[in-house]
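Submission sheet (multi-component)
Chains listed below:
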Amino acid sequence: MEAQQNSKKLLQIHKNDNVVIVVTSIRAGDHEVIDGRDITFTQEIGIGHKVAARQIKAGEKVYKCGVPIGSAKEDIPVGAHIHLHNLKSDYISTYTRDSDHAFAK
Amino acid sequence: MHSPSSSQRLEGYLRSDHRKGIRNYVVVAYLVECAHHVAREIVDGFRGQPVHLIGFGGCYPNAYADRMMHSLCTHPNVGGVLLLSLGCESFNRRRLADAIAATGRPVNTIVIQQNYGTRKSIEAGRAWVEQALKQIADVPRVALAVNELIVGTVCGGSDATSGIAANPAVGRAFDLLVENGAATIFEETGEMIGLEDVMSARAVTPELGRELKMSVEKAARYYKVMGHASFAPGNAEGGLTTIEEKSIGAYCKSGDSPISGLIKPGDVPRHGGLYLLDVVPDGEVRFGFPNINDNAEIAELIACGSHLILFTTGRGSVVGSAISPVIKICANPETYERMSDDMDINAGKILRLEATVDDVGREIYDKVLQVVSGVPSCSEELGHQEFVLTYKSFEPIGPSCLPA
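Outcome: structure written.
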């Protein structure tokens, strides 16, 4: 994962993390080397978002700042954007504006 | 130890309980929503002057709201208080007025029903505030040391940059404040979910560690009943996926000092150190969400004696507060560019690799001393004075919560 230290766009916060953080917005078509692989991004990824630093299997814990932040819902390939679609809380599910509203049911 | 860049002498307003204020405000407090308009009209007559509006909207009694109002009206930043009552609400206005008077502060109560209604009450209120401002102008100003300060922190409008830039920098500032003898308070146990063991290990005694862990477990139970965690849709748009992830970001505001105590709204730390404020109600789930927005948390930090508040944001919050100045620390460099008028500190420099967390931590520390010395923070300058207080219920803290 040495390559990330040279990246101006991705930051690994803790050595045990399996994600890196976007610190400068990524545009579609940008290249980064992650875990020895040349990744070409196909979509925009904003500041603060997470990208898989290596292959993560379904059910595996995702680590940021050295602490588990939830479990992978599916197999996540290296370089993939990690967010609500492939990561879930181990405590309380996350509400978004698109979630079914409890009162509307 | 880090000393301020300018070795200026700090001063505070000396109160009868020996606490010292960094501001000298007249507070106008409504005791039920029905008195809110009259109170606001009185305050609006003093634009640009040190007159702030607070209040409690509920008509039915609540021990928590009562304690909050007592703590806020006798806060060291407050020099005098005007209470606005409609007349039929249940708030015990006499007991509050007596408690304020016992501290030597000027206090007056206007009961709208006995004072011939809206117009006459506004006139009487403005006349009283006018003379109260003159009366408190000669409150003694005395030397104030950093070890007499209480500083609270809160985050709002968080995105994933908050947790990697602004919050760790506030953590560094907190470490510097604690090293210099100040009391610091972090809060929102609902945002410690997932970190209960990590946090407990920092307690100064094992008994306190157990209390800290129990406070987080209580928060997790409470939020589960409410149906979702302390997590707004904007958090997800900003790249945060789970409550655990948000927790880590929130947690690093606490820095690396040992945790000296667990307090609840209205408990004032008696000596320096780092304290966790438990903001989640005790007992069965009642009255809705623990805190309906960021200002409800800020009011609780102020009720615990906070002289000022360090507020971190990524998405870009603009709020300030009544009673204690709010310093804004912006984590997201893109947000900072859009909203720099509202931001005191640009922690986005950390993401641009132009400054380290330590650099920004020292910058925040220096800003604290500057605001203490009387320089208004951005939100103060812009006139922000948000305030909210709702129904809650708490049991008193246990004996293990504040080890001597």
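Remark: The domain at 3-90 of chain A is CATH 2.30.130.110 (Archaeosine Trna-guanine Transglycosylase; Chain: A, domain 4).
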